[in-house]
Design a protein that fits this description.
- The protein has twelve helices and 20 strands.
- The chain is an alpha/beta fold and about 450 residues long.
- The protein has an eight-stranded parallel β-sheet with strand order 19-18-17-16-12-11-10-20. A five-stranded antiparallel β-sheet has the order 3-2-5-6-9. The chain has a four-stranded antiparallel β-sheet with strand order 1-8-7-4, with no helix packed on it.
- Helix 9 (about 355-360) links the parallel strand 18 (about 335) and strand 19 (about 370-375).
- The chain is globular.
């Protein structure tokens, strides 16, 4: 790390951006609170930046840090400069009424009159450099299978819910199959036999006037999977743990991997899919040795995401999830900006609203970098936090979705779905007061 700047700040407020969708992000007031570090190595790999643990006693930002001195002077912005290159890590130390910023790569230093102005200037500059196409229409409205069925989803379940949407006249644009329609990751992106007939289901969804969407984890494979056994030279390094096995990142610079992804995406395109949620994308950026030794993990990731974008084409709506944030700008239409609402075993809301803080802190990204995906609303009676989460999603989110068995919704849930889906936010930035709501007072 090299020093970038030192400034006096008696009562600073500091924004640190996280590495990927599930990473912590937000505003911190030194002396009042500090973000918790990762609990173990798997959390470092899957929710922070692999290979770059933050030192004790510092605030870590990945590619973007804002410092508001708190005395009316301009907000200072420290930012990455090249969307095609490596994203620098930034460390912030606060002591003795001064703030010191350090970085391990090139950063720009600029000033803005306020928080909204700072985010807006960075968003416009980064998006322009990344080649983002500014949308004019709101994000699509989605029914998703995940929080009702998890990996046990079947074609019959999805068909039942599509009929339920029709019966209630709910304005859903996309019916999305989440994790569970494919075999375990690393099994060549092939459908799970127990799921049922995928082409027939997706054709029925389209015949009902909606687009068909699917979930993929294209850059991660299980260490015990067929692909990992048959092509060890396609693998880079460990990328956490899920589906009962260690995950490994694919080498997105390897010609064999790129050919595999091309063939797999062509099969998915042939199904008539118009919406893709690409998950666990961080695995494509894990540090390690690659076929092309000239590129960093971040650069390899962006080249792989660009391949996915090009293969899907401009008519497919692409949502990133578990994705390195700044390197994804210009290549996805929407981005998950918070952790999952809950995992299996916490369907009643007993684990709290895990996504609230980063979602509210990243409200500025909607309309500037992409459409913010806050994750699904859960509207059935069994989710104790449904009213609170609906309010958060409605204020700070951009892509509206819900994930319940339609037949299980009570009157409140049906009306809530109508409100959520009936008032999607504009494609442009959210109101200034939404952006600043997360800033400490």
């Amino acid at each position: 790390m090299r020093p970038v700047d030192t400034l006096p700040a008696a009562a600073p407020r500091i924004y640190t951006e996280g590495w990927q969708s599930w990473s912590p992000a937000g505003w911190w007031t030194p002396g009042r609170e500090r973000p918790a570090g990762p609990a173990h190595d798997v959390e470092q790999a899957m929710r922070r930046r692999p290979g770059r643990p933050a030192p004790d006693g510092v605030l870590r930002g990945e590619g973007l840090v804002l410092v508001d001195p708190g005395d009316g002077s301009p907000v200072r912005v420290y930012a990455a400069t090249d969307p095609e290159g490596e994203v620098p890590s930034l460390d912030v130390r606060v002591a003795g009424g001064r703030v010191e910023v350090l970085a391990d790569g090139a950063v720009s230093v600029s000033e803005a009159s306020g928080v909204v102005e700072a985010f807006d200037a960075f968003g416009r500059t980064w998006s322009a450099r990344a080649g983002r196409v500014v949308p004019t229409a709101p994000a699509p409205r989605v029914w998703c299978s995940w929080y009702q069925y998890f990996e046990r989803v079947t074609a019959a379940d999805v068909a039942e819910n599509a009929r339920g949407l029709d019966r209630l006249g709910l304005p859903v644009d996309v019916v999305q199959l989440d994790d569970g329609w494919l075999r375990l990751t690393g099994e060549y992106l092939a459908p799970r036999e127990a799921f049922g007939a995928v082409p027939d289901l997706l054709a029925a969804v389209r015949d009902g006037g909606r687009d068909a969407g699917v979930w993929l984890a294209p850059f991660a494979v299980g260490a015990d999977s067929a692909l990992a056994r048959e092509h060890p030279d396609w693998l880079v390094a460990e990328a956490g743990f899920n589906w009962g096995q260690t995950l490994v990142g694919l080498d997105l610079t390897h010609p064999g991997v790129r050919s595999f992804l091309t063939a797999a995406v062509e099969r998915i395109r042939a199904l008539g899919v118009r919406y893709v949620k690409a998950d666990f994308l961080y695995a494509g950026a894990v540090p390690g040795s690659r076929h092309d030794r000239r590129v960093s993990g971040t650069e390899a990731y962006r080249s792989g995401l660009r391949l996915l974008r090009d293969l899907l084409g401009p008519d497919v709506y692409l949502v990133g999830c578990g994705a390195p944030l700044l390197p994804s700008v210009g290549l996805v239409d929407a981005m998950r900006v918070s952790p999952d609402t809950f995992h299996e075993g916490a369907e009643d809301g007993s684990a709290g609203l895990r996504g609230r803080a980063p979602l509210e802190a990243r409200a500025w990204q909607h309309g500037r970098l992409w459409a913010n995906d806050p994750d699904c609303a859960v509207l059935r009676p069994g989710f104790a936090l449904r009213e609170e989460w609906l309010g958060v999603v409605s204020r700070a989110g951009g892509l509206r979705s819900f994930s319940d068995r339609v037949a299980d919704l009570d009157d409140w849930g049906i009306e809530a779905a109508r409100r959520l889906l009936g008032s999607p936010p504009p494609a442009g930035p959210l109101a200034d007061e939404v952006v600043t709501a997360a800033v400490p007072r």
